[in-house]
Queue: 3 jobs
Job 1
Amino acid sequence: MIFGVIAALLPLGVGIVFTAFPYLFAMIVVLFYFLKKNKRAPTPLERNKIALGFIIIFFLYNALYAVFGPVFFSMGEPEVWANWFKQMSNPQFLFAVFIPLLIYMIPLYLVTFWFYGKQAHRMSNKMFN
């Protein structure tokens, strides 16, 4: 969440890239943990499960923040829930929130799947051979 707040203060192009840092950091940490625990690179089925898990967590975290963030930051207003229900019933708002998330998910899935493939094999060979 801290990276999201910092990204909001940066120019648009830089901010969008900056929000991916926690995802990439977690991806690298989990790979090191996997390699140290299993002493091998992930199989294709494990790669797919890990990549899908990361994407689902990324999507749910960002979707929940996008949906409930305005409520959290405007709790002092008396009509916060009425405004929130009005926004949630607006299909254009929902489209504007969820389509960019889906667009980010595809490249992040591909990067994760690649990183846990040949890159993980190289790292595994370097660590254990």
Job 2
Amino acid sequence: MDYKIDLHVHSNTNPHVFSTIKENAEYASEIGMKVIAITNHGPALEDTPHWWHLLNVRIVPDYINGVRILKGVEANIVGENG
């Protein structure tokens, strides 16, 4: 399979990850990907990035090395009613 998009990418603002957003984008470019979505953990998880990261991720450029960067967060479903 030749995927051109990855909609679930964490960066090193999550404690279990070692790559920066820029490093993720550079690697994605090297392997021919066109789009990645930054989806660090949401506020309900223990290893959630500090709240300022969740707010400031919007300053990341829309493109890095020709790769489109979508900015989001991994959703937390905390109960039947959301």
Job 3
Amino acid sequence: MAMSHNQQDQQVPMIARNIGTDYSYKHQIVWKNVIGFIILHLFASWGLIVLLTGGVGIKTFIWSCFLVYIMGEGVTTGAHRLFTHRTYKATPLCKAFLLAMHTIAGQNSMFIWCRDHRLHHRYSDTDGDPHNSKRGFFFCHMGWLMHKKHPYVIELGRTIDMSDLQADWMVMFQKKYYYPLYILLAIFIPVYVPVYFFGEHWWNSLLIAYFLRYVYSLHGTWLVNSVAHLYGTRPYDKNLHPVESWFVSVITFGEGWHNYHHAFPWDYKAAELSNFINHSATFIEFLEKIGLAYDLKTASPEMVSNRIVRTGDGSHYRLGDEESRAAVTAWGPLHPLNPTYNSTLKPPEDKLKP
């Protein structure tokens, strides 16, 4: 009996049963994206020069920093920990604010962001991962946005369960009206406030309150895909490519504890500790205290300890061993703000995923 089109669409795509990284595959460059990113970075660099030479007032700078914070929490607390992983529940008012904050971040609609991130977790560091770290630092940092998606990313993306977000009218509203909402929330209001309230020149306001803060926040998010998959320790699971990065956690309000997060993706803390360079966890706890968030999920201490002993690389601060911890090195002091903080422990071998 011939299948209907709906039945065909529901079939799992015909992809190799085991997915790794085909290093012979050449990604096709999307030149309009390349040109767009060049223009974006040129204006951001112009804005940085204006800022460093005193071209804008302190109020405009503070306003831009506030926007970076708002959009950062929209990504970490909203898109990542709530809408993608469902690590806690939120009231409609809280969800509305987080959706607006995420829109300011300008990282595509909530629906697409969550789909790509769920795909990233399901096929992490393989050709099914939109920003496969095995393709090198530049690709997983930002190059993936300048290339045509790998066929596996496209096909496997259709299999990701998005029914929860499809049933959420707020998410679908933002998806439908994303571009006009972005123009209003991410461009017009951020630029208008310094001009109207602080007497800033509109061009300088555009350079600082839009271009510079936007590019800064983009690179902060991208660090999770690049640095937090390449340079650090794996105290929870040495078989996972993501690592623990103090440096990335400082920049991203706690998203750099990435080895833990991939080991326990349902944990609202996205880290073992909520009070160590993890402001997003503190923010979620604050939302819980004022009644906007509830049902916070977390891995039990026993579960975490068992995972560390069973699969960790030995570098854990409490349950590790001195030899493994000694493999952690840096140029200068071992400090969260030192980007050379690294581990000489052997990374996991490529493993095919079913």
